């Protein structure tokens, strides 16, 4: 009986967690307007139209932190620029909503897991040096734009820090941390999580807004005053 109660309790919790990730009908309508996505038109499901870069995607939802920037940077390039090459189809509205809901409402662990899968080329279960360099590039740009890293965009210091060779060295150091003896040039999933949460500044920027209304509905734009 006790085992049955535990299973039932686990199921209830799972259902509650799943509901947290769902968008309401009103929110879905707002998303179609904000992203120019159309769930159905003339009896046909329509893909996301056009393309967005990372900054434009973040701007739609008023998000600004390291994890959001990394996600948006990779999401926009992978899904909008490379989706047709990878799968032969463009991303559909349903898939867009599924991924976006997990990103904005999932736990920090769920969001980082999603981020890992976006950088895991071919779903092999690990990221390689080039993937890590891309992550570092996005992180560094995010820190610069948010003021976390006090560099002048035009300074020699910025140019040195942003140089590909420096980022390569950081990627090598990340890999060396876990594979100093076996000489593997990669990070497995659990290693990736351990590495990224200890990156300076990342732990402080894991709090992606979980209340969809804080970024989906802009009171000023809607003409609402407190």
Account of the 3D structure:
There is one protein chain. The protein has 226 residues and is mainly alpha-helical. It has one domain (23-208): Orthogonal Bundle (Recoverin, domain 1). Helix content is 61%, strand content 3%. The protein is built from twelve helices and two strands. The chain has helices spanning 2-20, 25-35, 54-61, 66-81, 83-87, 93-105, 108-119, 129-146, 156-162, 164-179, 189-197, 213-216; strands spanning 126-128, 186-188. A two-stranded antiparallel sheet has the order 1-2. Helix 3 (54-61) crosses helix 4 (66-81), helix 4 (66-81) packs across helix 8 and helix 8 (129-146) crosses helix 10. The radius of gyration is 20 Å and the shape is globular. Mean pLDDT is 65; it is low at 38-48 and 206-226.
Compact summary:
With 226 residues, the protein is an all-alpha fold. It has 12 helices and 2 strands. The protein has helices at residues 2-20, 25-35, 54-61, 66-81, 83-87, 93-105, 108-119, 129-146, 156-162, 164-179, 189-197, 213-216, and strands at 126-128, 186-188.
């Amino acid at each position: 009986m006790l085992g049955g109660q535990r299973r039932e309790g686990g199921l209830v919790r799972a259902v509650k967690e799943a509901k947290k990730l769902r968008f309401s009908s009103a929110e879905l309508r707002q998303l179609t307007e904000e992203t120019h996505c159309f769930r159905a038109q003339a009896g046909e499901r329509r893909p996301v139209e056009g393309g967005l870069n990372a900054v434009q995607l973040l701007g739609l939802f008023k998000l600004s932190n390291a994890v959001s920037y990394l996600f948006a940077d990779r999401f926009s390039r992978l899904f909008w620029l490379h989706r047709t090459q990878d799968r032969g189809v463009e991303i559909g509205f349903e898939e867009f909503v599924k991924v976006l809901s997990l990103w904005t409402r999932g736990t920090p662990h769920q969001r980082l897991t999603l981020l890992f899968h976006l950088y895991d080329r071919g779903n092999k279960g690990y990221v390689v040096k080039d993937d890590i360099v891309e992550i570092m590039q996005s992180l560094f740009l995010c820190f610069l734009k948010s003021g976390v890293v006090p560099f002048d965009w035009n300074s020699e210091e910025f140019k040195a820090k942003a140089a590909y060779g420096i980022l390569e060295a950081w990627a090598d150091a990340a890999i060396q941390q876990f594979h100093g003896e076996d000489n593997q040039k990669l990070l497995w999933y659990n290693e990736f999580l351990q590495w990224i949460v200890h990156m300076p500044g990342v732990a402080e920027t894991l709090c992606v807004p979980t209340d969809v209304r804080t970024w989906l509905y802009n009171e000023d734009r809607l003409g609402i005053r407190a």
